[in-house]
């Protein structure tokens, strides 16, 4: 007969706590709640301003029921032409420039120094928000779509190069080795062994970035980088909510059309 009492096994399963120590777990929870409370209590709330904002917000939402496409149609058309021009040219330029950066940022293709330089440039491009880059470029080159074009191109390079480099690092290396064994040049095995494997991904990402760039072109225009964003900002400053609603409806329609066309193209490529 055993000297130890029989051990009672639990009959229900309970998920183990992420932090085993109850003291540490509750200290972290209470500390987080205290930080949240202090953070919220430090906010200065102007209830009069909020009441006025609700009224203006409702006027803005109501304007979508009767958008005005005619009063500022000339400005709207000019703004959309600038936005579309910036979007297409920046996307094409950015995609073309992103390919060498993606090759240089692929660990399986580039040497250490090229890899570090390209990865550093990509990190810098992805760190800076488009608004910050647009403010800097507007200060350098002045108001207008040229600053917007440079902003979108810079952002496109970082976006495309990062995702494309990750795809290049995962390609099938047997094609690379086969071409190298035949004495093919760098450009030949880059064309036939690398780009041929990532081409569907490259086309899909390019269409996705085209969609992003059009939406971003309407945002950076608010800081003076041209496009329909400048027209939208002017309409909002003048409290012309019906014209602003018309601009936003056109933006939504173009984004939907772009998404539909890009999805068709991606399906065709797959």
UniProtKB/TrEMBL annotation:
One Pfam family of this chain: BPD_transp_1
GO MF annotation terms: ABC-type phosphonate transporter activity
UniProt topology in membrane: Multi-pass membrane protein
Keyword Transport: yes
Gene Ontology CC: plasma membrane
Residues spanning the membrane: 17-38, 88-110, 131-152, 244-265
Main location: membrane
Localization, UniProt: Cell membrane
Domain ABC transmembrane type-1 positions: 80-262
Domain of life: Bacteria
InterPro entries in alphabetical order: MetI-like (IPR000515), MetI-like_sf (IPR035906), PhnE/PtxC (IPR005769)
Keyword Transmembrane helix on entry: yes
Keywords recorded for this protein, A-Z: Cell membrane, Membrane, Transmembrane, Transmembrane helix, Transport
Family: Belongs to the binding-protein-dependent transport system permease family.
Protein name, UniProt field: Phosphonate ABC transporter, permease protein PhnE
Organism field: Orrella marina
């Amino acid at each position: 007969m055993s000297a130890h009492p029989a051990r009672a096994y639990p009959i229900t399963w309970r998920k183990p706590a992420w932090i085993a120590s109850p003291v540490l777990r509750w200290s972290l929870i209470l500390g987080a709640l205290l930080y949240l409370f202090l953070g919220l209590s430090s906010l200065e709330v102007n209830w009069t301003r909020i009441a006025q904002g609700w009224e203006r917000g409702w006027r803005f939402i109501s304007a979508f029921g009767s958008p005005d496409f005619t009063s500022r149609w000339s400005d709207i058309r000019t703004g959309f032409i600038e936005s579309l021009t910036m979007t297409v040219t920046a996307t094409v330029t950015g995609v073309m420039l992103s390919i060498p950066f993606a090759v240089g940022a692929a660990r399986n293709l580039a040497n250490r120094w090229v890899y570090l330089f390209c990865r550093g440039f990509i990190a810098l491009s992805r760190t800076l928000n488009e608004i910050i880059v647009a403010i800097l470029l507007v200060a350098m080159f002045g108001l207008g779509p040229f600053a917007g074009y440079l902003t979108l191109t810079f952002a496109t390079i970082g976006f495309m190069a990062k995702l494309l480099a990750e795809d290049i690092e995962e390609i099938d290396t047997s094609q690379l080795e086969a071409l190298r064994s035949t004495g093919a040049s760098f450009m030949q095995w880059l064309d036939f062994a690398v780009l041929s494997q990532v081409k569907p991904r490259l086309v899909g990402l390019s269409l996705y970035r085209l969609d992003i760039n059009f939406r971003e072109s309407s945002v950076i225009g608010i800081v003076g980088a041209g496009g329909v964003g400048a027209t939208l900002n002017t309409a909002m400053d003048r409290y012309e909510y019906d014209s602003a609603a018309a601009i936003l409806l056109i933006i939504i329609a173009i984004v939907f059309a772009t998404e539909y066309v890009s999805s068709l193209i991606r399906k065709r490529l797959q």
